[in-house]
Every structure is written in C-alpha cells, then in structure tokens.
Amino acid sequence: MSSQATLKIAAIANGDSNDKEGEILKLLNESNDNETIIYYINSLVKQQTLPIKGILVKFVENIKQKHTEAEQVQLYEEIVKIFTPPTAVVYLPLMKTILNLTQIYESKFQYDKAAEVLKSLQVDHLAQEFDSILQFQKFEVEINTRIAKNSLKVNDFESAEAYVSRIAPILPNLESNGIDDLLIDTYKTSVETMVKLGKWFEAASKLIVLDNEQFDIPLVKYTILSQHDPLKTRLINKLVESPHILPNIEHTPLLNIFQKIYSQKLIYHNEYIELLSYFLDTDDHSLSSDYITQALSKALVENNLIASSKIYNNTSIQGFTAILQLDESFVEELTADMIREERLDALIDDISKVIEFTGSNTSTQTKGVTTDPVLGQWHNHIVESCMVLDKIVDQISAQDPTFTDSFLLA
C-alpha cells in the first residue's frame, strides 16, 4: 500500500491537472482507513512541488466531519508522530492537529495527555504564521496557560509553574493593550499554581496587577500568608493605598488581622481561630485543612515575632507560644528559620528556651543571653504580663473603639 500511495501522489504531482490540491484532498478524504491516509501523507510531504501546507491544513480541518472521535484520536496521534520533529512546511498543520487532539483529550479528562501533546508544539517556530507580533504573543500566552491548567489538573505543580513563568516576560506588553479575558485567565492560572506551591507573595503579586475588585479578598488572604520580608511590607503598603481593597474586606475577619500585621501588633489565639475558620470556609483551590493551617500558623507566628521584637528585649518560647497556643517546637523552628534567613534579628538560648531580640528596634538594654537567672525570670514575667495587658486592651477596643483615645486624653 505504501508504494501504491507514493505512485498515486507522484502521478498527481507530475500530472497536468489544474487542481492538484483538490485531487490530493479527494484521495485523503475518500480513504476508508487511517493507515491509508498516513501512507498518503508520508508520500505527500516528499513532493516539494505541491502546496503541502495548504493541503494538510484543509485536510486536518475536515477530519472532524469525516471520522468518529476514536478515529480522530488515532489519526491525530499518527500525524503528530510523523510530523515530529517538524519542518517549516508542517508547522501550521501540526499546530491545528495538536489543538484538535488536545480538545478531545480535555473533553475525556485526559489532562496528562493534553499537557504532553501541547508541550510538543514548538510555539517559537509559528511566529511567521501570524499577522503581527501581538497576535503571536497572545497565542503563545494561550498555549502556555493551557499547558499549565492541564498540569494543575494532574497535580504537576512544578510543570505548571515552569510554563506560567515562561510567558511572564510577555505579559507586560499585553497588559499595555488592556486586561482582557485571556490575561485574566492567565493570571488566575498563575495564582492557582503559586497557591498550590505555597508561594503566597507571588500569588498576591499576580492579583494586584489586575486591580480588580473581585480579587480583593484573595489578594488580602495571600498577602497575610506571605512570609515576612521587605517585599511583603511594600505589598502591604500598596494594598493600604488602594481605594477599594480595605473597604471590600470590612465584612470579613481579614481586616482586623491585616491591620495588625500592618501595625506590627500581636495577634492572639481567638483571632487566629476565627481567621483560620474563615480561610477554611472560603478556600476555592481544594486545599487541605492541614495545608491552610500550616501556612496561616507560620504567617502569624512570623508577625508575632516581629511585633514582639519591637517592644520586648526577650521572651520565653513557652510564653510566646501561648499567644497563639501552638506547638513549641513548631514556633522554635520557625524562629530559627527567620534568624537564619536574616528576617529576624534575634538569638535563641537553647538552654533557657528564651528568644533574645537583638535588633535596633528593641530597647536599649544589654543584648544577649540574660546572665542573671532571677532577673531573666522576672523579665519574662513582665513580658508575659504586658502581652496579657495588650490583649485586654485589644478586646476592649474591639467593643469600644474610642476606649484607647479617651484613655490617652485622660
């Protein structure tokens, strides 16, 4: 059959017909089995005198109308196989084949296959098929976003991140022409990817670009979950400057916690529990409760460490842990991480289990490990008493916002 197909295609190519394209398409469309079609295609691509690209594009576009879905899948897969690696003449028909095959895979929930076949599409070689750079860039963003979405469906988060990162340099150019549905879809996919990877700052940074009120709540949530560093501080300031973000979270527990993080004030157990419940109830990424709990606990411990460093010289790990009622080893490990990453100026006395704040924002008393155990114990009692008093004032202020103002005026 292979030799017969070659002879038929060659006869048309070397003949006198004025409609060689039509005759080739007739051969392809009237073939009763996929094997014969593949023989014809293999023979066709060797005939450089024929309009190969145009013929193949029209044939691929007609496959849906001529074949069952099962036949389509088999034929598309064979075409992808014989056109890989592609030559310039088959870039466009290969693209159309892959897009058609991807659509079938996605409809059958075969997201892993959809992602893999899209990855075989060498997008860079298709630029010449578009009328403008902008059109090509939109196509590039669409394909990479689609790969990321399919990767997310099968929990391949690293692959999803790789493909959304690949198009990041292109997005500012598209944004300059306005935020359309494609960009919103791309940013939402990027956000979901970062959320699944626990990269909360990156997730928030994607949403703030959109400046869309419908994303204000998740934007604040991801900002709260971001690790404490100068980038988070700048992000928080941007949120405060927005005319709509804080008003749109007034009806949620987010506002109180956000304001405390902004002011670097201590957050207490009851506030943590209320916020955790809100996070669990409003999760729209199918995250596990353990995943959310771990992320929120980490963020609030970091905030409380920074808040404590502003007002105390040192604190016992036991006393500090009681604020949020978390596991001591968890808190100690987070503290050590912040110190090691130079996000907290402090030392940990492993013997007395005391966190010594050493930064310039603490009081001017002698830094380092307390040498007098009695004074150290007394200091810890004072610290814990101050924390309790701070909590009482917060609770009263929540009931009567004018309480602290009247107290100060008195």
Structure report:
67% of the residues lie in helices and 3% in strands. By secondary structure, the chain is mainly alpha-helical. Among the domains are: 206-358, Winged helix-like DNA-binding domain superfamily/Winged helix DNA-binding domain (Arc Repressor Mutant, subunit A); 372-396. It has a three-stranded antiparallel beta sheet with strand order 1-3-2. α1 crosses α3 (34-44), α9 (157-166) crosses α11 (181-196) and α12 (200-210) runs antiparallel to α13 (216-225). The longest helix is centred in the last third of the chain and has 27 residues, at 373-399. The protein is elongated, with a radius of gyration of 31 Å.
Q: CATH-wise, what's the superfamily of the domain at 206-358?
A: Winged helix-like DNA-binding domain superfamily/Winged helix DNA-binding domain
Number of strands: 3
Query: Which stretches are poorly predicted, pLDDT < 50 over at least 5 residues?
Result: 362-372, 404-410
- Look up the CATH topology of the domain at 206-358: Arc Repressor Mutant, subunit A
Helix-strand sequence: HHHHHHHHHHHHHHHHHEHHEEHH
> What general form does the structure show?
elongated
**What is the first-to-last residue Cα distance?**
101 Å
Main beta sheet strand tally, sense and closure: 3 strands, antiparallel
Helices, by number, come to: 21
> What average pLDDT do the residues reach?
89
C-alpha-based Rg, rounded: 31 Å
Helix content: 55-70%
Strand content: under 5%
Order of the strands making up the biggest sheet: 1-3-2
What's the CATH class label of the domain at 206-358?
Answer: Mainly Alpha
Structural class: mainly alpha
CATH architecture level-2 label of the domain at 206-358? Orthogonal Bundle
